[in-house]
Amino acid sequence: MQLRTCSPTWTFLFLSVMSFTVVATSPSGKLSPVSRANLCVTEGAISELSGARLSVSVPKMRAYLNAPTPPVVEAKFTYLGSTGNEARLGSGELRRQFGLKLRAQDACNLVYAMWRIEPESKLVVSVKNNPGQHSSAQCGNRGYHNIKPRWSTPVPILRSGDTHTLRAEMIGTDLRVIADNELVWEGSLGPEALVFDGPVGVRSDNARLQLELRAGEPLEKQTAHAPGCRTGSEESE
Questions:
Q1: CA distances from 55 to 1, 66, 76, 164, 204 (A)
Q2: pTM, entire model
Q3: Rounded to an integer, what distance in angstroms lies between the CA atom of residue 218 and that of residue 40?
Q4: Residue pair 65/225 in contact by the 8 Å Cβ criterion
Q5: Is 105 helix (H, G, I), strand (E, B) or coil?
């Protein structure tokens, strides 16, 4: 029996169509610009520029939306290099990165999609889950689980002056991460990602940035998932 195989051209076309379909059928609906006034900055600082743009120039920045929205968030950002005076992570590692947060209940329970810049360029998705713990003093840097994707492809290497778009969206326990309109990561976060709930947000470490942040329209009748603005060392992730 003769087996038929697809030519490289047909394979490329098939994968292109599949990638387009994933993006085009996203159930997230309309995304709207997020202003500085819509953010709770729990660590570091975010400045507001003209045209709904935001600026980050501090070694550690953590922020989330003040209102619950669907679990989808997108950032168009320009990477401007190191902030200088770099800060180490809780593990002691020195890393430069920018990423998105989903279901950010508190400092101990949330989902990350992080675009690591240095020392190694890659996209890492992780769930930080610490049942019964809600402050940095309780969980520290414990509870992180990096998630293995069903499918992934490398993200571009970020160079100073480059502009890119990063988007993350959850559908049930499934997460899709899209960079520059291309699917780069897809997989299941597992049931532990649904144990907690909260808003979307952003995080950076040692990366100077300008960005435009977009998120879904605030959800009505879900004030229980709006944590209010909590700042200080207890909220450090």
A1: 62, 18, 12, 15, 11
A2: 0.85
A3: 15
A4: no
A5: strand
Torsion, Cα of 98, 202, 234, 205 (10° steps): 10
CA distance 206 to 97: 7
Instruction: Decide: 173 and 191 in contact? Cβ < 8 Å.
Output: yes
**Strand partners of residue 39:** 65
Question: What's the token pair of residue 117?
Answer: 């810049």
Q: What is the pLDDT of residues 112-155, one digit of tens each?
A: 999 999 999 999 999 999 999 999 999 999 999 999 999 999 99
Please give the domain boundaries of the chain with CATH numbers for all domains.
Answer: 31-235 (2.60.120.560)
Can the peptide bond before residue 71 be classed as cis, meaning omega within 30 degrees of 0? no
Counting DSSP H helices and E strands in the chain, the numbers are 2, 16
**Model confidence over 172-216: pLDDT tens digits?**
999 999 999 999 999 999 999 999 999 999 999 999 999 999 999
d(CA 69, CA 223): 10
The strands making up 201-205's β-sheet, listed across from edge to edge, are: 39-43, 60-65, 201-205, 96-106, 109-118, 122-128, 144-146
Give the DSSP letter of residue 56. E
